Amino acid sequence: MKPAPFDYYCPRSLDEALALLAQYGDEAKVLAGGQSLVPAMNMRLARPGVIVDVNRLPEAAVIERCDGSLRVGMLARQADLERMPVALDAVPLLAQALPHVGHWQTRNRGTVCGSLAHADPSAELPLAIVVLDGAIEARSSARGTRWIAAGQFFESYFQTALQNDEIVVGASFPARREGWGYAFEEFAGRHGDFAIVAVACAVALEPNGVASEVRLGLGGVADKPHLAPLTAYCGRVLSQRDLPEIANAAVADIEPPSDLRGSARYRRALATNLAQRALTRALASARTACDGLAQ
Amino acid sequence: MSQPVLGAPLDRVEGPGKVTGRIAYTADNDIPGMVHAVVVESTIANGRIAAIDESAARSAPGVIAIMTPRNAPRVDARKVDANDSLLFLLQGDAVEFDRQPVAVAIAETFEQATYAARLVRVRYDVRPPTTALASGERFLPDQIFGKPAQHKRGMPEDAFARAAVTLKQTYRTPTEHHNPMETHATIAQWTGDRLTIYDATQWVFGVQHRLAATFGIDPKAIRVVAPFVGGAFGCKGQTWSHVPLAAMAARLAGRPVKLVVTRPQMFGWVGHRPQTEQVVGLGAARDGTLAAVTHDVLSETSMSDEFVEPSVVFSRDLYAVPNYAMSDTLSRLNISKPTYQRGPGESTGSFAMESAMDELSYALGIDPLELRLRNYSANDPDSGKPYSSKRLRECYAAAAAQFGWSARNPKVRSTSRGRMLVGSGMATASRATHRSPCTVRMRMNADGNVLVQCGTIEQGTGTPTVYPQLAAEILEIPPERVRFEFGNTDLPAAPIAAGSQTSGSVGSAVVVAARRMRELLVSHDGKPPADGFEVELEDSPPPEEAEHATQAFGAHFAEVEVDPDLGTVRVTRFVGAFDGGRILNAKTARSQMLGGIVWGISMALFEDTRYDARSGRIMNANLSEYLVPTNADIPDVEVILIAGDDPFANPAGAKGIGEVGICGSAAAVANAVYHATGIRIRDLPITPDKLIR
Amino acid sequence: MARTSLSAVALQLSGSGAAVSEPAGPASATATPTFVLDVNGREHQLTVDARVTLLDALRDRLGLTGTKKGCDQGTCGACTVLVNGRRIDSCLTLAVMHEGDRVTTIEGLASGEQLHPIQAAFIKNDAFQCGYCTPGQLMSAVGMVNEGHAIDRNTVREQMSGNICRCGCYPHIVDAVLDWKGRS
Q: Rounded to 5 degrees, what are φ and ψ at C9?
C-alpha cells in the first residue's frame, strides 16, 4: 500500500524543523524512525500532507546520563540503547523492556522518542517511562522547551499531550536508585509481537525492609499505560505472601478490552499473573540492592 | 538394475542462485514499457455494487485506466471443469465475499497505481453476510473427487452400539490461509492476439488452459512462464481472478502489466483451507481393537462454488476397521472459494482421528502407540487392496526409540520441569500418493551431456536437483552432466505440482525416459552419435498400478512445555519418522518433512483466520495478526527417513513426501498438551486462553 | 550529580541520525526529491516520488530484485537489508531518508563469484526451500553477527525471529548460522 502524495522536507536544524511544524500544524507529521508512521501512512491511518524528516538533525542521537537520569535524544534508536551496556545498567527496567520491542530490524531504525510520541497503549517504552516517573521534553518554536511528566503525557490511544507544533526532542528515564528493584514482564502471542499484556514494576525498600514505594504499570489493558494505585502497600514490610493480594489490587480497576489477541477475561488473568511475577522479581532485586547497601 | 533407496543428499543446484538473489520470481521480471495494476477489493462480504465513482482515481497522476465492471473487457468467467473455480472478473455487480475484486487501477508506477486504487469510491447495497459454519445453508455435495459424499463399509451402527467402549467427540479446525512468502503475482503482455504470462503458479498448463477459455483463444497462443515459485502450499494450484484481470488490464492499457497481490489481499480471492467441524465416533473392544469408526464432516464452501475438504480420507484408509461410515456436508458461506492446502483432507482429518485415538487410549488405559499397533492394517481397509509398500511399523519403532517414548510416565499432568508442565504425545501420519500422466523430453548430446525438459515448476521441492539425480543414476553418469529445464508451457506437459504426485509423475516419466535412453546407448555401444539421442514420451500410470493402494506413512512424537499460569505452549522436541518409499535426495526430502512438521506445529498452536460475524470481513488479514511461527517458536526437529523401494507405486518407486509431514503432527502436539495438562483441546488452534480455566 | 559515568559515551551514534556526509537532499519542499543512494558501494542518483520505500527503490528503480517483498508492512523480514551495517526492514523506510547511508543488499554480499561464507553455509545446511525469504534471512544473519550477539542455538532463534520462513526451514537456518560462526 502507498500513502497519498506528500511534500517532503528534510530540515538541517531543529529550528528549521520547528518552523515547518509551526507553519503546517496538523497537516505535518514528524518522521524519525518511521517504524510506526510509515505503516500507518501506508494503511491510510495517517494522511499527512507534509512530512518533516528529522533524521538529519545534528546531535540528536545523544544518549547521556545527567542528574540521576538517562537522557535519550530524539534520534537515538531503540537498538542504540540496547547495545550500550552502561545505559542498560543505568536503567534496568529499560534493559528488560527493550528486547520485547519488535525485532532487531525495527529496533535498529525505530527511535525511543518516536515510540513515546506514537503512544501505542500496548507498547513497552511508554509503560516503562510511566512506571519510572520519567519525563518527555517537548519543544516548539513559539513556546520553547517544556518538560511533560510521563504520567501526564499519554492521554489515550495514540493521543499525547503534545501540541501540533511540538517535537519530542528527548526523554528522561530516572536512573537506578539505591534500594530499588525493577522487573518487566510481557506476554505476546508470538515472539516479537505487540504485547497482549505487559507489566512494569519498580519497588523501593528502606534499609529496614519497609517498602517506601510500589509502582506497577500495566500495558495492553487500557487506552494508555495504566499505573495501578498501590500507595496502600507503601510503608509496610512486604513478604511473598502479600504479593497475590497486591497483584489483585493492581488489576482491580482495569477494564481490559476483548479483541482478536485475547478476551477481557484472559487479559485480566494474564495481568494478575504477570503482576505477581513482576512484583516477585522487583522485590527480590530490591532486597539484593538493600543487602548490597548494608554491606 | 536396482537403485539405492536413499538418494544422495546433494546440495540444491539452484542454491547459488537463491542465496545471491539472482533467481527471478515472477514479480522480479521487468518488461520494457510495463505498467502497474493494483486490484481494488470489496469492503463488504455480501451485496451488490450500487455505484463506482472512479473520477478522482482517473485524474490522479500517472493513471492510465481504471477498470471497473463498466469498462472491463467481456470475458468468460465460468469454470472450465469441476476442479476449477468461478472467477471474479468485473463482469457483474454481485459481491459474495470480503476482498472480492471490484476494480483495477492501472498506472505508470506502483505507487501511483496503489494510490489510485485507494481513490476509487465504491458504494454498495449491503446484505447481511453469513460466515459462521453453523449458519450456512447445508447440503451434501454430488461427489467428492469422484466418490460419493456418504459411504459405509460393514455395519457401523450395529458395531458401534455393541462396542464395549465408545467415544464420540466433535473436533474443529479453523480457516487457514496459505500465505507463502511470495504473494501471488502476474505479468501479462499481449503481442497482437498472443499472450505471454509470467505467473506465480504450481501449474503453467492450468493457467494456459484457463486463460484460453476465459479469452476464447487457442491455448497455443498463450505462453506461461513460472520457473521459480516462492512457496505455494496449494494456493497457487488454481488460476485465480487476478491472472485474467492482469491480462484484461494489459489489453485495456495497451501495455504490459504487472499485478502483484498484496499481503492483505492474500486473504481475498486466492483460496484457503476451509474450516471443519468433525464428529468422530470410535467403538472398540476392551483390548483396543476398533470395531466401528464414524466420521462426519461439515466444512465450508463459497456461494458459487463447491470445495470439499476430504478429511474423511484419513479415517477411512488407515486402521483395520471392519465397520465404517462417513459423510461430507457443505455449508454455504459468504467466503471466497476454499482450496487445497498442504495435506488437504488428511491434515484436518488426522487432527480429529488421531485426537480421538488418543482419547480412546486414555479411556482404555492402553499406551497410545500400542493402541495404534493393535489396529494396524496390512491392507487398505476400505478397498481391501494391498499397499504398494508400508513401513509404518518401522516408523513407529524408530521414532519412538529416538524420542524415548518408553520412558514416558503415562499419567497425565505427572511431569514438570521447574514451573512448566511437560507432556508428550504421538500420532500416525498417512497421506495418499498419486500419479498423473506426464511428458518429458530427454536429449543426450554427442559429448554425453543430458538435457531433460518438462514443464513442471520449482517451489522449494528440489525439482532442478532431484530429477537430474534420478536420470543420472539410471544413465550411470554424474548428476552434474544432466540439466533440467522446466517452468514454461513450451516444454512437454507436466501435471500440477501438487497433491504429493510430482515425484510419482515427473519422476516416473524421467525414469522411463532414462531407461529408454540407456537402451539406446547400449545399442550404440555406449556412445551417442554426433547428433545425439532424443527421447520424448508421455508416461501414464498403467491399469495394474490400481491393484495397489499407495500411501506415504509416518509417526510423529512431540514434547511440549505448558506454562500452567499463562497457558502458553512451547513445543520443545519433535521426532518424525517417515516412509516415503524411495527417497530421491535425502537432503531435500528431509527439508520437506521438516517443513510439514513445522506446518503441523503451526496448525496446532497458531493459525486461525477470524471473520467478524457482523460484517463478514476478515479481521486479521496480515502477518502480524494471522500468526505463523517464527524461528523462536520452532524447536529442533529430528526427521528419520525409513527409506525403501516401492516396486508397485510407480517407476520412480517414490511416494509423495511434501504433505505427509503435516498429517498427524498437529494431533501429536494436541495430544502432548493433554498429557501435560489433562486438558483436551478439540478446537484448533490451542491458544493460551483455552488452557486457563 | 552531573554527567557521570556515561559522560564518556555522550555518543553521537553512527546511525543515520549522524549524517555521514553532508547530503544535498532537499531542505525545501518537494514531492519528488532528487538524491544519491549508495548501494553496495555504488552511488545511484535518483529522482523519485517521496513515497517510494527503500525496498521499491531497490527493486523497481535500481533493478536490484534480490531483496524481496513479503508483506510491505514490516512483519515478515523478507526485505531485510543492511544500512550502515545494521539490519532494517527496507519496506518500512523511505528511500529519500537514506542519502548518505551505506546500503548493503543481497547483491552486495558475495565477492564476485565467491559466495560469502553464510551463503555457502545456507546451501550446505539446506537452510531454504523455495528461497524467497532467503535474501532477507541472510542479511539478517549478517546483521545479527554485526550486533555482536553470542552465537548459540537459542540466541540465534531469538535474534532471527524477525524473518519468517513459511517453508519451515528454521532449524536448518540455525544450523547454517552456527556452521558459519559459532558452536552449538
A: -115, 40
